[in-house]
Fold each of these.
Amino acid sequence: MTKMSKHQQFLYTLLAVVSVLVLSVEGQGEGHDDLLVSCLDFTPPSLLNVKELEGAWYGASRSPAHKFACVEMKVALTQNDTKVKITTSHAALNSTLINTAKEAVIDVLDLTNPNGFTVLYNLTDEKPTTYKILEIGADKKHALMCGYTNPQIQNASFGLIMTRERIADKKWLEGVKDEASKHFFNFAKDSVVDIQQSDKCASSAEVAVPVLSTILGVVYSFLRFMH
Ligand SMILES: *[C@@H]1O[C@H](CO)[C@@H](O)[C@H](O)[C@H]1NC(C)=O
Ligand SMILES: *[C@@H]1O[C@H](CO)[C@@H](O)[C@H](O)[C@H]1NC(C)=O
Ligand SMILES: *[C@@H]1O[C@H](CO)[C@@H](O)[C@H](O)[C@H]1NC(C)=O
Ligand SMILES: *[C@@H]1O[C@H](CO)[C@@H](O)[C@H](O)[C@H]1NC(C)=O
């Protein structure tokens, strides 16, 4: 190789510096905004073990925050395992009194629809909402979902973390949120808010039972005492 002129040396150096800059900028993009999958763009895996969804789930975190507490979702297979019935209940914010129960029935086959599945609850003021199951945690203890009521308004989509325990371990949940924020658009750290949960969450009927049995118990001992 012949000796490079000063001019050539300068060009090669410049080229090297530029390549390093370009590569490092690309590197920074990894795992950040560039690669965050939006709810609309996400394609659910074509295989889903629906048994992993069965049973009770509790709302742990949501982005953006909503106005409900004690969020619970029960999933049951029905009609010869061709449908799932979702029964969702919740209380108002700062309350443990579950005042809303609603249900929706979905074809099992729709759960893996690339465009998501539609949940239309049996209440008159509900809008159909498209949901996608982003993932069921390898530990089977959490599930990430997202949804929207209108695909045209992408910024109006939401992200939801459901857990198997009503009151999830705080540190563990932070880890789940952290991981979700690295992959999905709907889980930006400053927008995910924990859903109020309490071991006192109960419907008015359930709340009444202990009170009633206490009264009956008192009456019973009183009658016993009389005899
Ligand atoms: C449920 O599915 C099984 C197996 O496909 C079939 O033999 C049975 O008749 C079905 N039962 C009802 C009630 O549809
Ligand atoms: C819930 O409680 C918080 C803190 O006490 C309060 O700031 C907020 O306004 C309450 N929200 C509702 C809907 O009552
Ligand atoms: C909707 O479903 C819930 C939960 O199963 C039930 O309690 C409620 O009565 C239903 N409401 C209507 C209007 O059918
Ligand atoms: C969504 O974006 C539109 C315009 O792009 C804006 O007008 C609207 O306020 C945004 N909504 C939310 C919830 O951020």
Amino acid sequence: MPIGGMVKIEKACYYGASTTLNIMSIQSPTSIATDQPGYFTPEQLGEDSIRFFKEKGYLVLVGGFSAQEVAQLNREMVAICRGERGEMHMRNDGNRQHGEIDIDALAELSDEEVISKFLCIHQVHKFSDVMFRALAQPNLVRVLTGVVSPNVKCMQSMLFIKASGKPGQAWHQDEDYIPTRDRSLIGAWIALDDATVENGCLWVIPGSHSHGVLWPQYPHNNPDYDCATMAYDFPYADSDAVPVEVPAGSIVFFNGYLLHKSLPNRTTGRFRRALVNHYMSAESLLPWRHREDISNAKNDYRDIVLVAGEDPYAWKGTEDISRAYIRPAGQGGCGDGRTELESFRKKSVFEREKA
Ligand SMILES: O=C(O)CCC(=O)C(=O)O
């Protein structure tokens, strides 16, 4: 789909998935307990699920996506990684060094080998029709309109592939990266494989969103995690965290202030794939991507997709700014600036902010 065509779409629509199953999406049976607090089926959604989300900062919708939808997303992932949907650039944050992935050299490799080269690809809805439509999948939108607002917009999609041996992501809060004006940011983490402790499922600290505080972060040097920064000095211990093990097709919704992380995939030969979309209330401005020419209070990033209700700022139009890019796994090192927390603390405020 041409990007230019996409910005004309006022609201994303969902057309369903084709029915052919892909062998890569078939998993060995696992015994993931789905009768836990915070786990709901589409039939069980209601007051209790909304209350759980508000109190604990997350909820799990088991069976949110069907096996056919999961298979279609996994097939699309292969096409994306093979470069069939368009170019992706490697994100190069300041002085960090990352290797390039040579897409042409992937032609001879199997699907599993190709996708294993990537850890995470951002903004996949910008060049993939399938990923674009998944933004507004009906079960997903039902929860969003229940817990966020009748009016919901999306600004980010991320495809996590996490083959065996790939790192996790350290403790963080998503509003630290994507600030909203009304703290309405929410992640929808769609499991494209059964996600377990062994293959690197999400971990959350229930209730940690309720402070409304963004704790500081530093550029850790822990090889268990990718190059994204790690939160510290928050009033919780690792023992307060719970693993969110889920069967493929589940959607884990989590508040943008919730502390969460994932560990490396420690299995042999099993993937832990997930599609993660980020949404917020359409009523809030989105001061994302700092602009020199406008104050943060007025900055409103408009490369967004409305998935429910009305956009109060429709009169501003939308923009087509972001492009798909590859997030570095950090396995070749994250470059300069990685440090132990104690030496990070000794740096001046100026030096810390540069990191
Ligand atoms: O899926 C993962 O491993 C990490 C995802 C995550 O932390 C996020 O989407 O904010």
